[in-house]
Amino acid sequence: MGVELQPEKNEPIFRELRFRNLTIKNRIFRSSISGRIDNYNGSGTPARVNFEKRFARGGVGAIISSHVPIRIDSRVLPNYATIDTDKRIPFWREVGERVHEVDGCKFILQLSMSGRQQDIGGIENQRNRDLRLRPLSATGKGDFFNGLPCNAMSLAEVRDAIQDFGRAAERVVDAGLDGIELHSSNGYLFNQFLSSAINDRQDEYGGSLENRYRFLGDVVKEIRNHVGRDVFLSVKLSVIENDNAIVPWPLHYLYPRGNGLKESVQIARWAERDTADAIHVSTGSTFPHPHNPAGPFPLDMAWKPYQSILASGQHTLRNYLLMRYPWLRWLVRLSWGRTQHFLDRNGDAIPVLVEGINAPAAAQIKKHVRIPIICTGGFQTADGILRVLQNGSCDAVSIARPLLANPDLPMLLKEGWPGPKDPPCSYCNKCLLNVLEHPLGCYDERRFRRFGSQSYEKMIAEVMEVFADKTPLGWL
Fold first, then answer.
1. Among 48, 165, 350, 394, which residue's Cβ finds the most Cβ atoms within 10 Å?
2. CATH number of the domain at 7-467, please?
């Protein structure tokens, strides 16, 4: 039996979304996602251009870049393109132009500093040799899960970072891109300042919620001082942190949860006051986090890429051993899966409420601000997207993993399909684990079963596709 196409039903997904200073052709954003496909020194590659073009061709209204470091010593992983110097402007201009060629797709650059959440320190951060070269954070405490070490920023270092964000914003404008997003969520530097569970400062950037917001607010103001009010500026927030989500359940109540909706509503209102044009709603005070990206943690393979970060933190060897040996994995499941619930569907474990998992929180934020709300959270069906748009939870959705699995999903929805034609994203999170060492892509071989004995080869060919396009690029 064929699928009945319903383009009229899906039409609300493809209505224009007007921000104060930017118009997006539909309600689907490609969320911040990418892999180690650039040069070690932070310069970009043709593979990055091809990666972004693939999603533009698939029909998204706008692409939010992966986290783009404003300083080389603040990157989460090496081999990500940076915007730490004017030398990077021609590359990002090329990316924007190639994306713009595809039916008016927009490109928004996400500015980032890692803080203590730095999975693989580059040669600029030789943590074990010199304590002075540890990543800078709001705190001097390592994170609970990996024990990634860091140094608390001095006031001078805080001010330097604020100025660096302003200079990076100028480069975004000079590159002709369509806007900026501040990566203020998922455990990175802004989140480390905002969080009541992480920020232990005693100066004007710590203590009260107003003080913890100050760093983000100062950056927003600095960006406006550099580029003015006409540049689109989104703030991505982890509106429910659940900082204790990976603590074993007997100890759960001994650890703080971090910010919840009450605090995040106030943060969103302050961001709006300070001229943010949108709030992008996420959850979790780390990345990965049991709720972000939602879904099972594939422990049978997690230990292999985890070897890449063994030297990075105080607890990484412990975690590696717990994942490496099957008879110990139940301890990880006890901690990581404590707040997750699963259904058995066609023999596969699928988390309940993955699609739209953040929508209830987004709806609460939307009640208290006038600027548009973007919501991330496993969206890949017309019904799932329509539900949150029509019930007022948000104004647009952002998608990451399901677009890795099916980059043409927006085009299919526009044609009236209820979801992907090919097997949907299974939320298995194998893409997340592979990104530490390998190109980002869908690594769920089950989705390629229709190719029989060639399933693995087909999967790898799809992953490697971004390296195949030899189109000459102008900035080289």
1. 394
2. 3.20.20.70
